[in-house]
Specification:
Blueprint (H helix, E strand, L loop, with lengths): L42 H29 L7 H26 L5 H7 L7 H44 L6 H25 L13 H20 L1
Helix pairs in contact: 1-2, 1-4, 2-4, 4-5
Length: 232
Amino acid sequence: MVTRPTAPIAKTRTAQHRRHVGVQPSLPRPRSQLWKIPSSPGVAAVLQGYGGIICPVLIGFDLVGVITLALADRQPPLGPAGFAFLTLSAVLLVFAMQYSMAGLQYAVPPSAYLDWQPEASIDEGHRERVRNRQAEDVGLLDKYESRARACYDGGLFAFLLALFLLLIPAAASRGSLIPAGIVGVAALVEAVWIVSSAINRPVPVLTPNYSPPVVSQLEGAALRAWEKLGRD
């Protein structure tokens, strides 16, 4: 019989992680919980997306733009400002990729700790040390994910702002301002998205949230699972 831990693991949630899925439901954390839970079950997939796909592609676009502007004989009226924001975007996305790669080393399921240290399943003292290590790793995972997300948000916004500045023509006309206007609206939407996530006030049109019935079902399922884990 597994002894129930007497101290609950510290509860932490990262507000920055609520960008794409809205506010996560606040699930109850009974005293029978053995392992600390990340801010979201999909945090490892998010980091893999940042570091393996999204950031490298955007960095490539940034570098193409920087090289093109650096070699061009004639530049747009706001070319220097666009050049600066493209450079800033590339730097932030590089850091987002680095944070993602560093954070993935802590995205380890609880079963892996027991696979590497099977004596924790029979020794209470060793099990408590393994639980503490897993809790520290989950805390580090959330911290790296929040930093990666902040760098990604900043890099994406800087990219859109640079594109907006580069599309502003020297001689304004209705047709020539349409591309800049489209990108400007996209940059504004991105800014609203970032700020609303940072202050934990998601906009339903941008980030659909859980409906109350779904929240209740998730809380009930989680509570039953944790109680069963404590009984086993």
